[in-house]
Amino acid sequence: MRRLLPPSALARDGRLHRITTTERFSDERDQRDTRRMDPNAPDVPDRARALMHGIFVGEIQALEGAGRTAFDYDTDEVPLQLKLDMARQCWDEARHCEISVKLSGHMGIEIGEYFESTTLFEASCHEDPIFRLAGVNRALEGLAIDVFNTMREFGAAMDDPVLYFCEDWMLADEVTHVKMGSRWLREVTEGDPERRAAALEFQRVVDGLFNFRGARGEGVDAAILLARRFREMAGFTDDEIDAIAADSEAQRRGVEADPVFS
Ligand SMILES: [Fe+2]
Ligand SMILES: [Fe+2]
Prior knowledge:
This protein is mostly helical. The protein has helices at 21-24, 32-35, 44-72, 80-107, 119-123, 129-157, 161-188, 193-209, 228-233, 238-257, and strands at 18-19, 116-117, 216-217, 224-225.
């Protein structure tokens, strides 16, 4: 079987509509208002549906990415336990796909109603497995922690126990996946500070994209709340969480200083 599968080779049926990562991040507007799960916003059902569809396609790619990482390396390149963690993650992500499909039905979303970009899978195509763990398990699944916590709170605010418990169960698994990333980044790069620093820089670049121009943060106006407590459980240090918040804050100030559409 072929190793290092490119994103263009992912199998999809005709329902899903692909856009490029460049297209996805080309919207330069301030996204704090349009992304916030504000129960009082008239268009909040559409915001929630768009976010949920994004979660769904992310779950498909998380399954594909973990599967590739379990398969792409031999045990002289990565520890066997790392491969087993990736296999366990596949099991979880497959379950998340099924939960997401059922939750989408519950929320009135059609598969393919919103776009798919393969940014998550692209991060899992890096040739160095530790970069994959940093970019996917720590950056993007760290984002999943923030997003699932945000959606879980939204489910509580809307008195929707189906949404609340689906997000709560997936959140618990994502904490485990991020923890795997934290563990293997630390263990595999023990004694190799340059490789560790480079992987962390890759993680920072991915985190920067998914701050959505400052929409992630800890204030009341943050569209995606940094889930500090769950991130700590997943192996993030206070300094690392502070750095994400500071980077996002800097992006937000940049958008406010130079609004594209005013
Ligand atoms: Fe997941
Ligand atoms: Fe995950």
